[in-house]
Model the fold of this input.
Amino acid sequence: MLRIEGVSKSFSTDNGSTCTLDNIDLTIEKGDFISLVGPSGCGKSTLLNIVAGLEKACSGRVLMDGREIRDAGPDRVVMFQEAALFPWLKVIDNVEYGMKVAGLPKRERREKAFHYLKMVHLTRFASSYPHELSGGMRQRVALARALAMDSDILLMDEPFAALDSQTRSILHTELQQIWRTTQKTIIFITHNVEEAVLLADRVVVMTANPGKVKKVFSIKLARPRDMENVDLAFVVSQVIQELKEEVEKVARAEFDSDWSPKSDTFLPTPERNIGNGI
Amino acid sequence: MINRIQTVLFYILLVGIWHGLYQLAIWPDFLFPSPLGVFSTFRQGLADGTFYTAVSTSMGRVVKGYLIALALGLPLGVFIATSRVFKNTVGSLISGLQPLPSICWLPLSVLWIGLNEMAIIFIILIGATFSITTATEAGIRNVPPIFARAARTMGTKGWRIYTDVLLPASLPSVITGMKLAWAFAWRALMAGELLSSGVGLGQVLMVGRDLNDMSMVISVMIIIAVLGQLINRLIFSQLETRVRKRWGLDRA
Done:
């Protein structure tokens, strides 16, 4: 349904140019839940923005149902890391906004907005302003707003990164539930591998500079998934193994050139083990 | 409550000191009137309608000038913020002319427009428009880009991004600009009225000077100060507070 063909993008700054995305090929079927993980700077957000139509690729193209994506639109709604709710509108008006742009009549908008607010369990705050809500609540409203667009594809750019872990677990459960009922296609970006394996059908591990697809893991665990599940932990460790090399590469590039993961981190090694397991 | 009491007591004290100084007769009567003298002139001015005419004339002028300034300044600010061509041309002209006090425009406006109402409204316009333009431009440029992106992913296109996102998002900044523009407009009004003849407040002030009527001068000064402050408090500050509350900008 969504085909990313040979997408490349490079940014040039004063410090030279980076090959943020290098010939990315990915196919996403209808109803898939895909997660993109990778070290920072690997182009995950850039790829999402290109799919969303907010940025243009330097080469390659993205096809949705056979048509090339040229611009942002309500068929590919995005949920950002910061909720990006409009502070001058009440919560309910925020959720209604997309429908208002689409030209739906007022009564229908109101009903649907309440329906989606109920899905995220926030109907009590319909008449509040965004500044009166906590971060987690704002993200839930942003989720309701995105869902109210009724788009086939939902793009999520590290939506839960700024939340505390309790709120995040609640939202994980809610998201799984929502995905099950709405059967949307979801592309979910995160740098949290546990989150990715918990939620997704396929986890795409990306490299940084150049940004390529390193490996695609097919997660065959039964749903609904649980963070405490041992099988989940196993899959997570496999993905982390794949990811570790990339993270170290990025760290080496970002830290000083004489940093090395072995000598400069305090890791328990046999020599430093002063009595574990006695 | 205690704040109000302190303020009122302070003013009573000031008037008391004023009266005391008057009693000492350090300066001649026509230069330094007593508070009671000023008060009776005040009452007179209200009774014979001078002050009423003066206030309504002045207010009429400043409101007209201000509204035109709004109608011109807001779109100008939007254009300068969004079009590079506009910014380099009209924008640079406006920022170049900004340091010129409104009163310096009076000779030009009198020569061009004549010695009438329009000349005064013109300089009020000049004073206020630039503030509104600058504030609108800054407001729009400082809107976090994520709002426009979010709106685009929900299908907003073209000019709707301005009406739905950029303008509402820049409202706090615009209101601050409007407050500033009011201050400039009021000052431009006074400058214009002081240097021309007619029945506005500034003009009555000059009449007081010509007649050596210090009580009149002080009465009118009080009216001008109070009126300016009143409108600032009742209209602009209220507006600003409401918007800031809704946005949650002033959380303690």
Remarks:
- The first strand of chain A starts at residue 2 and ends at 13.
- Residues 1 and 65 of chain A are 5 Å apart (CA to CA).
- Chain A touches chain B through 27 residues (CB under 8 Å).
- The radius of gyration of chain A is 20 Å.
